[in-house]
Every structure is written in C-alpha cells, then in structure tokens.
Write a structure and sequence with these properties.
With 340 residues, this protein is mainly alpha-helical. It has a domain of 233 residues. 53% of the residues lie in helices and 1% in strands. The chain is built from 13 helices and two strands, in the order ααααααββααααααα. The chain has a two-stranded antiparallel sheet. Helix 6 crosses helix 10 and helix 8 crosses helix 9. The radius of gyration is 55 Å and the shape is rod-shaped.
Length: 340
C-alpha cells in the first residue's frame, strides 16, 4: 500500500487552522465534546474491546494514524488506541452507515453529529486538508469530508485531541484529552484509563491489536489521574443532588401553600353562600308625643316691600264680638222695675 507525498503545509492551511481554533474557542465547551449517553456505555465498550480483528486489517490503518499524529503533533498510538476502543478498527457493525447504538455518533472514530449548536464533527470535518491522503486505504469514500471515510475521521480525531491538550507523549495531557474525547462523566474516567493503558502497552511491547488491556497499567493511570477526577465528579453529583432536593422541597412547599390558600378561599365562599340575605327593616312612624317636641320649621320670611315705610304701616284693630240680645223681662221684674 503506497502513500502519496503530502503537500506542504502552507499559509492557506494555516488560515483554516486559525479559523477552526477561533470557532472552537467561541463554542461552549459542552458543544464540542464527544458526549455519549452513559447508560449502556460499559457494555458497549466491553464488546468492542473483546472483538477479534485481523492483524493485517488493523495494520492497514497505521499509516493513517501516523500521518494524523505527525500533522497535528499527537501520539499516533493514542489515536490507534481510541480507534480500537471506539469501533475495533472500524469493525463495528455501524461503522460505515447510520448512527451508533446510542443514536448520537457515527464513523470509525465515532464523532458526535447530534450535539450542538455546532456538532463535534462539523467543527473538525475539514481537518483532513492538513494531511496527505494516501492513494489506497480501507473504505475510501468518493466525496470529502465524510464521517465514514477512515482518513477524514482519523484526521479529525487528531485535531480534536490536539485542541484538547494532547501531545506526542502518553502523559497526563494525553489522559485528559482521551477523557474529554469520550465525555466528562464517571465512565469517561474508565475510558481514558483503558485507552492510555493500551497505548502505553503498545509502546512498551509493540503493536498488538487483540491483546487485552493490562490491568496494572489501568490501575496506575487511575491512581495518577482518574481517582481525583472521579472524586470531583462524585462531589459534583452530590451537590447537584442536594440542589435538586432543595428545589423539590421548595416546589412542594409552594404547592402546599397554594392548596391551603385555595381551601381557605373555597371555605369562605361556601360560608357566604350558606348565610341568608340581610333583611331591610322599614323606618318607624313618628309617635304622637313627638309632635309637640318636634316643631315644624318656620316658613321662610317674606322680604318687605322697599316702597313702603314703617310709618305707613297701620296696625289692624281687632273687631269685638257683638253682645248677645237681652233676655225678655218677666212680669215680676217689670213690677219691681228691674227690667227695662
């Protein structure tokens, strides 16, 4: 299998790299992580790690790993170990079509295509422009970039690991990059431990695609880096659970207060509905003895005529009543002379 001479890394490629780096810095951290659901992840990666692959098939990918590592300054064994961890060197059933078992990622390096607003794959899909594409390699697609093209996917993974802090050494920065490649959760710690342990074993003992991961190396990486991260994640989980519990209790108190208020309002409305309507009492008529006490209001005074004077006003004399006629005299009164 031959490889073409890579073109020089010129100013145009450098401009592309600067633009992608600026876009990455402007993107929230959660948008460019290759996040996956934690549920079922352990079982999925156990199946991938145990899957037997032909050594000749695995070796065909090594030039791609080396080219990507050289172009982006990361350890090629780290790239190869992630390739083994994700799809068993592109041998997983969903490598070249559709999405994975979790419905989020695709391709040989399992790039996330559903997170966002800008997915991880969209951020790094043009990374292949920095490398020299071999004439022949497994599953070369017709159009580029393609998430199902092994060269495009491996170059994008190298750029992502470089931006996550990985270098040419299998050290703490490489562990942190592998941890970020999977996602920041508890299984991500296990993922990073296994990836680095496999890469270190290949560096120490030679490339062995079907060799099991050395448990002692896994423990060493966990003691050095994983335990502190796991402790921090557990503390964060406890804080989130406490915050969630406080919010749940506050919401329950608010619901109880609304229920009590509604009950009081309903009881008040029911009491008001049971009470008879108020009767209007008629006013009492005035009593007879109150007539004397209550004097009628005096009539308004009539204004005097300005054309008359007090001297012209003559008091009206009162006419005496006529005297009754004298009774007729009797005969004796006439003899005595008392009656006339």
């Amino acid at each position: 299998m031959g490889a073409s001479v890579p073109p020089p890394y010129g100013a145009q490629d450098h401009a592309v790299e600067l633009a992608r780096s600026a876009q990455l810095r402007a993107t929230p951290r959660s948008a460019h992580r290759a996040l996956r659901p934690s549920r079922g992840a352990a079982a999925y990666y156990r199946r991938t790690a145990r899957k037997r692959v032909r050594r000749a098939t695995a070796i065909e990918f090594l030039p791609l790993h080396r080219e990507a590592g050289r172009r982006y300054g990361v350890a090629w064994r780290l790239l190869a170990s992630i390739h083994r961890q994700e799809t068993a060197f592109s041998a997983a059933s969903t490598t070249y079509h559709g999405l994975n078992d979790f419905g989020c990622c695709a391709g040989p390096m399992q790039f996330n295509v559903t997170n966002g607003p800008v997915s991880t794959w969209k951020l790094y899909r043009d990374a292949f422009r920095a490398g020299g594409r071999p004439k022949r390699y497994p599953h070369r697609t017709r159009h580029h970039p393609s998430i199902y093209d092994d060269f495009d996917a491996i170059m994008a993974a190298a750029a992502l690991l470089r931006d996550s802090g990985a270098g040419t050494s299998l050290d703490e920065r490489a562990w942190q990059a592998a941890y970020s490649y999977y996602g920041h959760d508890l299984y991500g710690v296990t993922y990073a431990n296994e990836v680095l342990a496999r890469a270190v074993a290949w560096e120490r003992d030679g490339f062995c695609p079907n060799c099991a991961v050395d448990p002692s190396l896994v423990d060493q990486f966990d003691d050095a880096y994983g335990r502190a991260v796991r402790r921090e994640l557990t503390a964060d989980d406890r804080r989130r659970e406490k915050l969630k519990e406080r919010r749940r209790r506050a919401a329950a108190r608010a619901r109880r207060a609304r229920t009590r208020r509604a009950r009081r309002e309903r009881a008040a409305s029911e009491r008001a509905a049971r009470q008879p309507p108020a009767r209007i009492r008629p006013s009492k008529p005035p009593r007879a003895d109150d007539d004397a006490a209550v004097k009628p209001p005096a009539p308004p005074a009539t204004p005097a005529d300005t054309t008359t004077t007090p001297a012209d006003i003559t008091p009206t004399a009162t006419t005496p009543a006529p005297a009754p006629p004298p009774a007729p005299c009797s005969a004796i009164e006439k003899l005595l002379g008392d009656c006339r």
